[in-house]
Amino acid sequence: GNSVTQMEGPVTLSEEAFLTINCTYTATGYPSLFWYVQYPGEGLQLLLKATKADDKGSNKGFEATYRKETTSFHLEKGSVQVSDSAVYFCALSDRVEAGTALIFGKGTTLSVSS
Amino acid sequence: GAGVSQSPSNKVTEKGKDVELRCDPISGHTALYWYRQRLGQGLEFLIYFQGNSAPDKSGLPSDRFSAERTGESVSTLTIQRTQQEDSAVYLCASSPNPTSFQETQYFGPGTRLLVL
Q1: Contact A82, A19 (CB under 8 A)
Q2: CB A103 to CB B45 under 8 A?
Q3: Comparing C-alpha atoms, which of A13, A2, A5 is closest to residue A73?
Q4: What 3-state class would DSSP assign to A80?
């Protein structure tokens, strides 16, 4: 079945460092790919998404490119801030009966220090 | 506008008791989803509603789990005879269009369930 694998955390960085969180997927068909973020004490919220191969999703300085040839959707940010500390989840849309559901990776905790 | 809300935010119960978790989706959203997040794990899909019907119940872990939705709005997830392995955060999400792969799901803050 379809699945998502993302790098284990925690990831600990200093402010202004470069961030990469790896995400690879296994899927039949043509899913959309998502990054969701969960800030401390808050609910999951969409960070960015890409709906077809070679699309780049971007938001708040974060970027991820849908790479079909490598089945990857790595999250990157050039200069992280303390406020980026959160748990990041990679996900793909999957077909369920008469609809879709999301398949999530296990999440990667990012901790940024000043 | 209002987002997805869930209640209670926290629930502690004794093994063997029944619990009900509530979700209020964003108004007008046709699709409603329940997920479970156990400690150190990703989110597991439990069940999906399109309107008031549940075409896909494949993720429900056992027959102790059931869910319903009324008026294309509020949904209740019921866990009967709770077990310690049911301890998790239960997340609800809604989206406007249940059949689109591109659709964003909007999540509530979750209910943290602890079974003693």
Answers
A1: no
A2: yes
A3: A5
A4: coil
Q: Provide mean pLDDT across the span A99-109.
A: 87
Mind listing the pLDDT tens digit for each residue in A37-70?
A: 999 888 899 999 998 899 999 999 999 999 999 9
Are B101 and A106 a contacting pair at CB < 8 A? no
Q: Which two tokens stand for residue B100?
A: 């689109």
Nearest to B101 among A36, A93, A97 (CB): A93
pLDDT given at position A8: 84
* Band of pLDDT at residue B96, cut at 50, 70 and 90: confident
CA distance B60 to chain A (A): 13
CB contact under 8 A, A99 and B48: yes
* Whole-number Å distance between alpha carbons of A37 and A89: 6
What pLDDT is recorded for position B1?
A: 53
Give B113's strand partners. B11, B88
pLDDT at A65: 97
In angstroms and rounded to an integer, the radius of gyration of the C-alpha atoms of chain A is 14
Degrees (nearest 5) of the Cα angle A65, B33, B99? 60
- Reported residue count of chain B is 116
